[in-house]
Amino acid sequence: MFRLTRPLLNVAKRSTGITGLKVHANPLPELTLTVLQNIPETSVYRQGVEALVRYKLFVVESANGDISVAEEKLADGQIEEALDVASDELSLAAKMVEWKSWEPLEEKPEPGQWEYPGVETTAASSS
């Protein structure tokens, strides 16, 4: 009896089972967000995205080309879903560069604008 091995099963994947999300032919090459280089290193957004991308890249590289292992370790559903999210993040990063969200506000916020019920404001967050 013929038995498919894991890597061969990955190649034979014909559908994600998700409407509108096609199977990606080569989902494991390195994915980077070079647009982040246009955002200051001190930006919390950049730091968070870089940390997430580094972790996901580590997981994908440690899977040694086995898509099912990468999917399991990432716990983001199918690899195509993770790529779809990465594409959205790339679009958002470009918008963050356009908006220059790291710069000070053009207008001083109204008193109490950033206060929320039940949350105390610290000295660092109130400036």
Automatic annotation (TrEMBL):
The keyword Lyase does not apply. Belongs to the complex I NDUFA5 subunit family. GO terms for cellular component: mitochondrial inner membrane. One of its GO terms (biological process) is respiratory electron transport chain. This is NADH2 dehydrogenase. It is a peripheral membrane protein. Residues 104-127 are annotated as: Disordered. It is found in: Mitochondrion inner membrane. The keyword Kinase does not apply. Pfam families: ETC_C1_NDUFA5. The lineage of its organism: Eukaryota, Fungi, Dikarya, Basidiomycota, Agaricomycotina.
